[in-house]
Amino acid sequence: RLHASDNPQPMEVAAIETELLRDYRFGQQQLIEIWGHACAIAITKAFPLTSLGKKQPTVLVVCGPDQNGSIGLVCARHLRIFEYEPTIYYPKRTPHTIHQDFTVQCEKMDIPFLSYLPTEVQLINDAYNLVIDAILGPETDHTDVKEPYAGILVTLKQVKIPIASVDMPSGWDVDQATSDGINPEVLISLMAPKRCATSFTGKHYLAGRFLPYDIQKKYDLNLPEYPGTDCLIEL
């Protein structure tokens, strides 16, 4: 059982999600939409339009193959509505209908998709204000990162522009920080911080204010008080 001081383990996170889908009748698409929207708002707080150094408010969103990638797609769509200029790199598109739906929604918003990620890091630094890492989530085995993602992490480790990671920094062990992962300036934890977030020293947001009270109680999540009606809080 979790103590109030603990962060949920990946197992607990999976259990909470299963319970939301099965017992509370949330839909997977609904959860991804809630999280992606909250991530976009966190980006607007951490990197307001007025603070961006480049003439265009460009953002590169790198999406992985699983749920984290879909959250990235939703985040990109909302950033577009918030008048940022996202570009998406989504190298391995999943045949799952939900992922396809989110992809089409982005295409219909005229968000460009890159066909490859430049390995010339300077090109990324010059073209974008920041990178959103929506690559690997808690469900990924960080010791066995396959291509193209291993190569993407090598590239992202060298970029000079800020990186914001969705739920956990890609390449980190969900239980602890690993030197193999990338080093983001901003972390947006979803539902509750993962254990590895305790060693994160950058700007840290908790996003997605929707968990039923019974679930919060059952898993001893001990979530902070969100300000007013905000859907995220800076920790």
Structure, explained:
By secondary structure, this protein is α/β, with parallel strands linked by helices. The chain has a single domain (10-216), classed as Rossmann fold (3-Layer(aba) Sandwich). It has seven helices and eight strands. Strands 3-2-1-4-5-6-7-8 form an eight-stranded mixed β-sheet, sandwiched between helices. Helix 2 crosses helix 3 and helix 3 (67-81) runs parallel beside helix 4. The two termini are 24 Å apart. One of its GO terms (cellular component) is mitochondrion. This is ApoA-I-binding protein 2. GO terms for molecular function: NAD(P)HX epimerase activity. Residues 13-223 form the YjeF N-terminal domain. InterPro entries: YjeF_N_dom (IPR004443), YjeF_N_dom_sf (IPR036652), YJEFN_prot_NAXE-like (IPR032976).
Order of helical and strand elements: HHEHEHEHEHEEEHE
Summarize model confidence as the mean pLDDT.
92
Largest sheet: 8 strands, mixed
Q: Write out the CATH superfamily name.
A: YjeF N-terminal domain
Characterize the overall form. globular
Order of adjacent strands in the largest pleated sheet: 3-2-1-4-5-6-7-8
In the CATH scheme, what's the topology name? Rossmann fold
CATH class descriptor name: Alpha Beta
Rg of Cα set: 17 Å
What is the helix content? 25-40%
Taken together, the total number of domains comes to 1
CATH architecture: 3-Layer(aba) Sandwich
Uncertain runs: 1-5
Count of discrete alpha- or pi-helical segments spanning 4 or more residues = 7
Strand content: 5-15%
Q: What is the SS-derived class?
A: alpha/beta
Organism: Esox lucius (Northern pike)
GO molecular function, one term: NAD(P)HX epimerase activity
Protein name: ApoA-I-binding protein 2
InterPro entries: YjeF_N_dom (IPR004443), YjeF_N_dom_sf (IPR036652), YJEFN_prot_NAXE-like (IPR032976)
